[in-house]
Write a structure and sequence with these properties.
α6 crosses α11 (about 245-270), α12 packs across α17 and α14 runs parallel beside α17 (about 410-435). It is built from 17 helices and 2 strands. The longest helix has about 30 residues, at about 190-220. The protein is mostly helical. The structure holds protoporphyrin IX containing FE.
Length: about 450
């Protein structure tokens, strides 16, 4: 019953019937949004408009995606040529593709920042618990959308990136081989993979994404809008002053959306999405890298036993992410960035610790000693899996404990140290994969030839 109530809480009554009619009935499009919003939630710095930006990007993606479908041909013989003719022969074809490309990549970044914003303002308690879970699902769908689209140009980069990532599934114990076959539609990447990816990319995933977004917005509305910023001397019982969604918030959202569209247009005109040489299944490029948002995962593969890198560690991270709203907190605090000054210090300490320890780990593992050499007598699953994973988790734990001892803090504030540590580590591993891995995935400088 409690779970049911947290998913479908009782509706919040609008102030007057006239307001309800004027705002809700007359504006079909904003049915998903609250009628009144607390005034304090309006300043840009409270949410940075990140959720709205993500929604705007999805809108751009649908619009440009439909246009691309008029030209794109999902077969290995025609895919590359159809993109080439889109760029060369179709008026504004290249621009439409660039807008699609930039919107997709920005969506991953903006969704990640939105996750950070909701986490660090504690917007996952009470009525927002289940919306956090919906958000995590949205993040997975956004990654799936990007990933399935990555293959479609059928150039060397896309072909081998998808080969790398689908190949990672082979490391799942017992069912790995079957999973690879399902993902590829056969043993190798070919016509079946392309048509499967295309169908998922253009129908299954967008429908799921838009459906989940509608659920997500509705949950924001049911929670009475976004979380309300708290001031230290606020009376928690007092009702906050509210204002109508139209025009106060709608106007702000509209301006933010327009600014974002302008940014995407500038990027699309200035930086081309590019198209490499056609896919050659017989010749792997060196290095063969996953798409950038999976390079953190590929980097883990260089340091841990594959089962740990691909299954155990990401699985634990995902479960941890889903569990955040359902952990027990002494006093759930929402609405204030980092909860308190102590919370801010703890988060900064966690991020700084990751900034120092993650590159150190990468360098030590590359140049000083490999775990397998060090623990030569143990089976690989232990020497390159359990032991380094325990050391990494132990380090995370030590950082949290040390920071907690230094600054004090309640459970939510201490959790922020751990979250900041892991989020920063992920960003650094991704950056190492993008800029510092060269031939044979060895460490190199980004400017090296
Ligand atoms: C396509 C991806 C997503 C879209 C389009 C989206 C959209 C939105 C919008 C428009 C809002 C209200 C305004 C705002 O907070 O900026 C919102 C709130 C929220 N989102 Fe998302 N979101 C997405 C992904 C996520 C992710 C990955 C998470 C976290 C795991 C998340 C968790 C939340 C939560 C907890 C709220 C309520 C915030 C509050 O009450 O202050 N969302 N989202």
């Amino acid at each position: 019953m409690r779970i049911w109530k947290s998913v479908f809480p009782a509706p919040i009554a609008p102030r007057t019937e006239r307001e309800r009619k004027r705002v809700v009935l007359n504006h079909l499009l904003i049915h998903m949004r609250p009628v009144r919003v607390p005034e304090r939630t309006l300043p840009f710095r409270h949410t940075f408009g990140l959720g709205g930006m993500a929604a705007t990007l999805v809108g751009l993606l649908v619009l440009t995606g439909v246009l691309l479908m008029f030209v794109y041909e999902p077969s290995p013989d025609r895919a590359y040529a159809s993109i080439q003719s889109l760029r060369r022969e179709v008026r504004f074809g290249g621009l439409v593709r660039n807008v699609h490309y930039w919107s997709a990549n920005l969506l991953v970044v903006i969704t990640f920042f939105h996750l950070l914003r909701t986490f660090f303002t504690g917007a996952f308690h009470g009525a927002r618990q289940f919306n956090w879970v919906l958000g995590v699902l949205l993040l997975l769908v956004v990654l799936a959308a990007n990933f399935t689209g990555y293959l479609l140009p059928w150039d060397q980069l896309s072909f081998w990136a998808i080969t790398i990532v689908t190949g990672m599934l082979d490391y799942v114990p017992l069912i790995g081989d079957g999973l690879v076959r399902v993902a590829r539609g056969g043993a190798e990447i070919g016509a079946a993979t392309l048509i499967n990816f295309y169908t998922f990319h253009t129908t299954v995933i967008p429908v799921t994404l838009v459906g989940l977004m509608a659920f997500h917005f509705w949950r924001v509305r049911k929670a009475g809008g976004v979380v309300i910023p708290l001031e230290p001397d606020d009376d928690p019982e007092a009702r906050p002053a509210t204002t109508l969604f139209v025009p106060s918030l709608l106007l702000r959202e509209f301006v933010t959306g327009l600014a974002l569209v302008a940014l995407v247009m500038v990027l699309a005109v200035a930086v081309d999405a590019g198209l490499g040489v056609p896919a050659n299944p017989g010749m792997s490029p060196n290095p063969a890298k996953a798409p950038w948002y999976f390079l953190g995962l590929q980097e883990l593969l260089l340091h841990f036993h594959p089962t740990w890198a691909v299954v155990v560690l990401p699985g634990l991270a995902l479960l941890g992410l889903l569990a955040i709203p359902y952990l027990r907190y002494e006093e759930p605090l929402e609405g204030r960035w980092f909860v308190s000054e102590t919370g801010r210090s703890l988060a900064v300490a966690g991020a700084l610790a990751a900034l120092a320890l993650t590159p150190l780990w990468v360098l030590l593992d590359e140049y000083v000693t490999r775990w397998s050499e060090w623990l030569g007598g143990l089976p690989p699953g232990l020497a390159e899996g359990l032991v380094p994973a325990m050391v990494a988790l132990g380090l995370t734990w030590a950082v949290i404990r040390l920071a907690g001892r230094q600054y004090g803090g309640n459970r939510q504030e201490i959790l922020q140290a751990g979250f900041a540590f892991l989020a920063t580590a992920l960003v650094i591993l991704t950056a190492v994969g993008v800029w510092f891995r060269g031939e044979g995935m060895a460490l190199t400088w980004p400017w090296a030839p």
